[in-house]
Amino acid sequence: MINLRPVLLVIGTMVATLGCAEMVPAIYDLSLGNEDWQVFAGSSLFTVFVGLGINLATRDGDRDMTIREAFIMTAGAWIVLTGFGAIPFVLSSWQLSYASAYFEAMSAITTTGATVVSGLDKSPPGLLLWRAELQWLGGLGVIVMAIAVLPILKVGGMQMFKVEAFDTAGKILPRATQISGILTTVYVVLTAICALCYYLAGMNGFDAVVHAMTTLATGGMSSHDSSIGHFDSLSIELIAIFFMIVGSLPFLLYVRFIQGHPLALLRDKQVHGFFLVATVAIFLAWRSQATGGHEPGLLELRDASFSVISVMTGTGYTTVDYSKWSIFAATLFFIVTFIGGCSGSTSCGMKIFRFQIILTSLRTRARKMLYPNGVFMQRYNGHTLTDNDVSSVMGYFFLFIVSFFVISGLLRFLGLDLITALSATGTCMANVGPGLGEVVGPATNFGALSDTVKWILSYAMLLGRLEVFAILVFLLPSFWRV
Q1: Of the ranges 127-136, 325-334, 335-344, which is most confident?
Q2: What is the pLDDT of residue 482?
Q3: For residue 354, which of 74, 157, 215, 153 has the smallest C-alpha distance?
Q4: pLDDT at residue 167 greater than cutoff 60
Q5: Contact at 8 Å (CB) between 222 and 230?
Q6: Is the entire prediction scored with pTM above 0.85?
Q7: Element (H, E) at 335
Q8: Is-contact 332 436, C-beta < 8 A?
Q9: How far is the C-alpha of 327 from the C-alpha of 402, rounded, in Å?
Q10: 380 sits in which H/E element
């Protein structure tokens, strides 16, 4: 039978931690005399009380998780944390409906960055800080999940990224706890460095902290409606580009760097693929701005570089409305939305390694056609690819595409135009944030959508962040059989 005790233990601990985090915006609002501090303080106490209650009630007994229980824990944690994280958005001066608040919280925790809120420049600072905190905590959770949990669940080819030192079948909880400790240290240090860089580049202390948290998490929720474009600063944009890239590379490689293996980053095929795709996309986006005989210059290269890195990493910061450059540019950014960064990072999308594995498999099959009697070994990053690895990746692609069209069709049925339906679904499933068009484009937000659409897109964000399999597995009757 499924043992929910370790599942509830983990979720209860995470809920209590989230409640403690709510005291940060409460204290900050109190120091500024903003009445929303009461909302955060009350929500914090309630959340901590519930979390500790669940923790104490499930502390005794067997704490080992099976694979089925890990699936339940992974999905349940994100759903429950989002529910509690949405409470301040409902009770505060924003007074959002619960559907809008849940969408905002899900967007933050999954580091998507889509928002239903406008007027950020005049919003209470505590709410802006809370969104940034949710993204920062979500980004850390994404890393731990991608390194400690999903590989052992064999989700979408992630089994190739098992950490051998922690590869103990059936003991997912202690495994994740050990990994999260060192990753948290790296994550905190990089965030602090990013905040300092932003501050030295001209941001005030509050903006520097908010943007550092959402940059490393590749979430992109800003404290200004015009996002990074508000500052109109080349130095700030360069810092953002650098740390968006940092957040999109495998965090275990940073650990290896600290342990005395500085060349690990340079040898990783994911890293090679990421920079290759980014460079080509930047060049194409730069050239796509040529209109009326105008030759793109350095300013256009600056806009292209920032926009491509922002979308490809799933951060979603904006400085210009790139959807208006040309039809080719809009199509390019739509494609880049799905590519994403590297596995084991905070970035979004389908991940570079899956495209590389498919290309490797196609190349091997082509060679077998030319040399039927030949024996060809498929390898990726020093790992021998098995048929299960390749089929897992192919299955992920198939389910992602099917889910994309099903959700897009549902939004179309609910009255959205074709561009908005496709773009909103794509940007939420890929956890990017800004879409295309007049409704959900880079210059607008998701506030105009109905509550029903927001619930569906909240599910799309969760589906994309948990790599599709971790959610769809619950639809299988065999999953629930004893």
Answers
A1: 127-136
A2: 58
A3: 157
A4: no
A5: yes
A6: yes
A7: helix 327-339
A8: no
A9: 25
A10: strand 379-380
> 384 forms bridges with which residues in the sheet?
379
Q: Where are the domains of the chain?
A: 387-480
Q: What is the mean pLDDT of the chain?
A: 87
Task: Outline where 86-171 has alpha helix (H).
Answer: 87-91, 98-109, 125-144, 150-153
Among 360, 478, 313, smallest CA distance to 368 is for: 360
Interatomic CA distance for residues 196 and 326, integer angstroms: 37
Per-residue pLDDT of 274-327, as tens digits, reads 999 999 999 999 988 876 566 788 888 999 999 999 999 989 898 888 888 888
Residue closest to 457 by CA, chosen among 20, 99, 77: 99
- Give dist(CA 180, CA 184) in Å, integer: 6
Shortest CA distance to 67 belongs to which of 477, 470, 394?
A: 470
Q: Residue 130 and residue 22: Cα distance in Å, rounded?
A: 7
Residues in the chain: 482
Give the model's confidence band at 439: pLDDT under 50 very low, under 70 low, under 90 confident, else very high.
Answer: confident
CA angle 140, 146, 150 (to 5 degrees): 135
Contact criterion met (CB below 8 Å) for 345 and 249: yes
Q: Are 186 and 253 in contact (CB under 8 A)?
A: no
Tokens of 168: 């103990």
